[in-house]
Amino acid sequence: MKKFWLVLTLILNITLLHAQMSQVTDALSKNDAEALSNHFVSVVELNIDGTEGNYAKAQAKIMVRDFFNKIKPAPFTLKHKSESSSSKYIIGDLSSKGQKWRVTVYFRKEGNTDAIHSLKFEKE
């Protein structure tokens, strides 16, 4: 019986993580800073085209929104994701006006969920 509950818990955790990553990729595809910020930890490590620092959730949301408004990117294309017990991240691309941006999102455990603790937008 213990094995059953362990397997069930594992399946639920994997399903929850997949849903969270799906919500994050969806927010990136829609260029929706509000929805994306719902997954931020309280202080986010943010790097937007070389401007980097640690920002409060509200300030990071504003910076991401301004970035999206500035470049008006096409939908996000997921290129890679990694889900291990110690680290979780996704990598993908945004395109805008002939430019390509590499997006890297690192997650950290916050309570029962994985939240974004680092977000990078790097021009290729």
SSE layout:
Elements: H1 2-29, H2 33-37, E1 40-48, E2 51-56, H3 57-71, E3 77-83, E4 88-96, E5 99-110, E6 113-123
Parallel strand pairs: 1-6
Antiparallel strand pairs: 1-2, 3-4, 4-5, 5-6
List keywords for this structure.
single chain, globular, 3 helices
Detailed description of the structure:
Strand 4 and strand 5 (99-110) form a beta hairpin. The chain has a six-stranded mixed sheet, covered by helices on one side. The protein is globular, with a radius of gyration of 15 Å. The protein starts with a helix and ends with a strand. Helix content is 39%, strand content 44%. It has three helices and six strands; from the N terminus they run H-H-E-E-H-E-E-E-E. The chain has helices spanning 2-29, 33-37, 57-71; strands at 40-48, 51-56, 77-83, 88-96, 99-110, 113-123.
Ranges with pLDDT <50 over ≥5 residues?
Answer: 4-18
Report the strand count: 6
Shape label: globular
Radius of gyration: 15 Å
Record the strand order, biggest sheet.
Answer: 2-1-6-5-4-3
Calculate the mean pLDDT score and round it: 85
Our estimate of the beta-strand percent is 35-45%
Main sheet overview:
6 strands, mixed
Helix content class? 25-40%
Structural class: alpha+beta
Reading the helices and strands in chain order gives HHEEHEEEE
H/I helix tally:
3
The span between the termini is 52 Å
Q: Brief overview, please?
A:
The chain has helices spanning 2-29, 33-37, 57-71; strands at residues 40-48, 51-56, 77-83, 88-96, 99-110, 113-123. It is an alpha+beta fold and 124 residues long.
